[in-house]
């Protein structure tokens, strides 16, 4: 990480700049781990029989796991997660996690808007070719 | 039973205080694939000016969930978990949640509007610390499917 303060690092930032990106490989173990950590034990996130019974294409990742790992992509760049003023998403498509091959979730964080006090970071979050979150936007404080 | 529009404006009791533990924050950080040490190393968090490890931004959902349990427990709500889809989520922060915080959430239903055979319900949780100071407001939009005839 740069030794420069955040406000200096973003002095020349422009709309469209990519500030962070990563791919996270989810497995069934990831879902069980998130269930335990969050307390969300809805069985559609770990039982194929329940997922099939309610008409889902397979066991799904928790939407909040996808939302949570997406924003964590920018925390090292921010330096301090306390810069986050606002974070919102729409859950548009499910992430199906195959029992053997899992699922790859790719996050790209791009500058969506710049003003004097804050930056808007737009997160593109996809499983394979499918975008799974809509309007995933993080507003971050620019100043000290 | 369809979603009860009278939920809007109903008064709910504040949730019991939730004490944020350091190991819980570490466990949650690992679960959301957090890589920054501010979530796991107290020394790093202190260097940033926090009293202890900083919870990942979406940890607020753990507290908000207590209010969603309250909503589901309302006998006349018309909301059944198996017909509920999480459509949108938003957090507005005054500051991040930090280990050691004792947090209380206040539920309010700000909107119920018909959507197809069901309804869109906006559920808000205002989360404050032990001094009563605002920490984060968490807002969920829930899509409640209509009953299968």
Give structural attributes.
heterodimer; A: 144 residues; alpha+beta; Thiol Ester Dehydrase, Chain A; six-stranded antiparallel sheet; 5 helices; 6 strands; 24% helix; B: 149 residues; 3 helices; 32% strand
Write up this protein.
The complex is a heterodimer of chains A (144) and B (149). With 144 residues, chain A is of the alpha+beta class. Chain A has a single domain (6-141), classed as Hotdog Thioesterase (Thiol Ester Dehydrase, Chain A). Chain A contains five helices and six strands. Chain A has helices at residues 6-9, 28-38, 48-53, 63-72, 75-78; strands at 18-26, 84-91, 103-114, 118-127, 130-131, 133-141. In chain A, strands 1, 2, 3, 4, 5 and 6 form a six-stranded antiparallel β-sheet that branches. Chain B has a domain at 5-20 and 57-144: Thiol Ester Dehydrase, Chain A (Roll). Chain B has a five-stranded antiparallel β-sheet, covered by helices on one side. In chain B, a hairpin with a 2-residue loop joins strand 3 and strand 4. The mean pLDDT of chain B is 94. The chains are: A alpha+beta (144), B alpha+beta (149). The A-B interface holds A 24, 30, 33-34, 36-40, 42, 54, 63-65, 67-69, 71-72, 75-76, 79-82, 84-91 and B 24, 27-28, 30-36, 38-39, 48, 50, 54, 56-58, 61-62, 65, 81-82, 85-93, 95-96, 139.
């Amino acid at each position: 990480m740069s030794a420069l303060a955040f406000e200096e690092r973003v002095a020349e930032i422009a709309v469209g700049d990519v500030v962070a990106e990563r791919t996270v490989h989810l497995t069934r173990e990831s879902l069980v781990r998130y269930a335990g950590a969050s307390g969300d034990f809805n069985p559609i996130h770990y039982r194929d029989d329940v997922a099939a019974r309610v008409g889902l294409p397979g066991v799904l990742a928790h939407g909040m796991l996808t939302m949570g790992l997406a924003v964590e992509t920018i925390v090292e760049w921010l330096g301090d997660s306390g810069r986050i003023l606002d974070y919102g998403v729409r859950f548009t498509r499910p992430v199906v996690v195959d029992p053997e091959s899992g699922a790859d979730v790719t996050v790209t964080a791009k500058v969506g808007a710049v003003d004097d006090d804050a930056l808007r970071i737009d997160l593109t979050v996809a499983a394979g070719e499918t975008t799974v979150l809509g309007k995933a936007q993080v507003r971050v404080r620019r100043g000290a | 039973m369809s979603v009860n529009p009278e939920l809007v404006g109903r008064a709910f009791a504040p949730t019991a205080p939730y004490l944020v533990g350091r190991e819980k924050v570490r466990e949650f950080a690992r679960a959301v694939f957090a890589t920054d040490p501010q979530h796991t190393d107290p020394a790093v968090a202190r260097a940033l000016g926090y009293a202890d490890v900083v919870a990942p931004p979406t940890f607020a959902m753990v507290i908000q969930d207590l209010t969603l349990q309250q909503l589901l427990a309302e006998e006349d709500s018309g909301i059944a978990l198996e017909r509920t889809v999480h459509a949108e989520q938003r957090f507005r922060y005054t500051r991040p949640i930090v280990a050691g915080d004792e947090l209380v959430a206040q539920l309010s239903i700000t909107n119920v509007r018909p959507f197809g055979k069901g309804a869109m319900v906006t559920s808000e949780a205002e989360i404050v610390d032990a001094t009563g100071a605002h920490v984060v407001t968490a807002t969920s939009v829930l899509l409640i499917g209509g009953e299968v005839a």
